[in-house]
Amino acid sequence: MRDALALTAGTHPHPNPRVGAVIVDPEGVVVSGGAHQEVGTPHAERVAIGDRRYPGHTMVVTLEPCDHTGRTPPCTQAILEAGIDTVVVGATDPDERVSGRGIARLREAGVRVLPDVAPDLVEANDPAYFHHRRTGRARVTLKIASTLDGNVAAVDGTSRWITGPEARADVHRLRGESDAVMVGAGTIIADDPELTVRLDGWTGPQPTPVLILGEREIPRDRAVMAREPLCYVDADGVDLDAVLSELPDHGILSVLVEGGPTLAGSVVRAGLVDEVVWYVAGALGVGRGREPFAGTFTTISDLRTLAVSDVTPIGNDVRVTGHFEGGV
Ligand SMILES: NC(=O)c1ccc[n+]([C@@H]2O[C@H](COP(=O)([O-])OP(=O)(O)OC[C@H]3O[C@@H](n4cnc5c(N)ncnc54)[C@H](OP(=O)(O)O)[C@@H]3O)[C@@H](O)[C@H]2O)c1
């Protein structure tokens, strides 16, 4: 299963799932493997099978094989035609068109199926897919970079750079893992960000810019405007829940929200943030600049507890990753 998962590294198949598969001979040797690379290309099972037959072999596949015809014919059919004996499935597919049906179809045809052997590993490899199929919304990671004393920008709006080059490279890695990067009007006007992945040797797709706009006109010369952003505009405040429910129609299942404080406050208060990645700089503003969230922390019952899953020093800064308790 770890080999099958490893084959999904570098794949960008959303809105389809990341899936890897290996074929193991009766002696336990991996003889073939493959992954679903992107929408419209063959599924992992078909890549692993190719045009050969594998009687007496076992397929280990991260996600339940599909039994419906979408852009490609059902994978269950390919498995049956290849004469595979046993299928080991990492996780049942949460997609209601598939869930349980692929496994049932294989069993009906006499294939031995071992389901759900590593659901946590498989979900951790593609959390946005599972989140979307369960909630109907794109999964949100909120990224914030602040000084140790809690400022995301100086009073005059300048914020470049609060963190060091290593942490900034880590943000580019996060962007590379995301289908889209979302910012609000204030950040576009103040910072003119490109919102691209700029990593040496990066050959993957660039995340789609998603702009949350209100009353203010965005100057046409802003760098991001040349990147065909998806723009959502409402002078009374954009309905962010509706945006996150619509983004999957554009193939976007994972969104990195990069601020600023007004947008960050809105997404957290609306309960739409699944994961927080916070870069705490080894640097001080020494005084009050701009706070990470617009709005007030009125009383202790407003406290939002994060389940902290990782704390990693990066250069001269620290990255804290957490999930909201009870979140999906
Ligand atoms: N350190 C960091 O991690 C970081 C990251 C990003 C930005 N920043 C800093 O943050 C500052 C900009 O922050 P900001 O708070 O002014 O801008 P922002 O959060 O990027 O944009 C907020 C604006 O988006 C529009 N909007 C429309 N619907 C909205 C909704 N539902 N929720 C929230 N906003 C909505 C409104 O525009 P209208 O006002 O036009 O109606 C609103 O004022 C800059 O100084 C930048 O340097 C820091």
Overview features:
10 helices; binds NADP nicotinamide-adenine-dinucleotide phosphate; 23% helix; single chain; alpha/beta; 328 residues; Dihydrofolate Reductase, subunit A
Task: Please state the CA-atom Rg, rounded to the nearest Å.
Answer: 22 Å
The secondary-structure class comes to: alpha/beta
In the predicted model, the low-confidence regions spanning at least 5 consecutive residues are none
According to CATH, what is the class of the largest domain?
A: Alpha Beta
- Biggest sheet: strands side by side, in what order? 9-8-7-10-6-11-13-12
Percentage beta strand: 15-25%
Do you know the CATH topology of the largest domain? Dihydrofolate Reductase, subunit A
What characteristic shape results from the CA principal axes? elongated
Report the total helices. Answer: 10
Mean pLDDT: 95
Assign the CATH superfamily of the largest domain: Dihydrofolate Reductase, subunit A
Succession of helices and strands: HEEHEHEHEHHEHEHEEHEHEEE
| SS elements, strand count | 13
N- to C-terminal separation? 24 Å
Task: Domain count, please report it.
Answer: 2
- Which architecture of the largest domain does the CATH hierarchy give at level 2? 3-Layer(aba) Sandwich
Bound molecules: NADP nicotinamide-adenine-dinucleotide phosphate
Q: Describe it for me?
A:
The chain has 328 residues and is an alpha/beta fold. It folds into 2 domains: 2-125, 3-Layer(aba) Sandwich (Cytidine Deaminase, domain 2); 129-324, Dihydrofolate Reductase, subunit A, CATH 3.40.430.10. It has 10 helices and 13 strands. The protein has helices spanning 2-6, 44-49, 75-81, 101-108, 119-125, 127-135, 165-176, 185-191, 240-246, 261-269, and strands at residues 20-24, 30-35, 58-63, 86-91, 112-114, 139-146, 180-184, 208-213, 230-233, 254-257, 275-280, 306-314, 317-324. It has an 8-stranded mixed beta sheet. A 5-stranded mixed beta sheet has the order 2-1-3-4-5. β7, α8 (185-191) and β8 (208-213) form a beta-alpha-beta unit. The chain is elongated. The structure holds NADP nicotinamide-adenine-dinucleotide phosphate (NAP). NADP nicotinamide-adenine-dinucleotide phosphate (NAP) binds at residues 144-145, 152-153, 157, 159, 162, 183-187, 190-191, 212-216, 234, 237-238, 240, 258-263, 266, 290, 294. NADP nicotinamide-adenine-dinucleotide phosphate binds at residues 144-145, 152-153, 157, 159, 162, 183-187, 190-191, 212-216, 234, 237-238, 240, 258-263, 266, 290, 294.
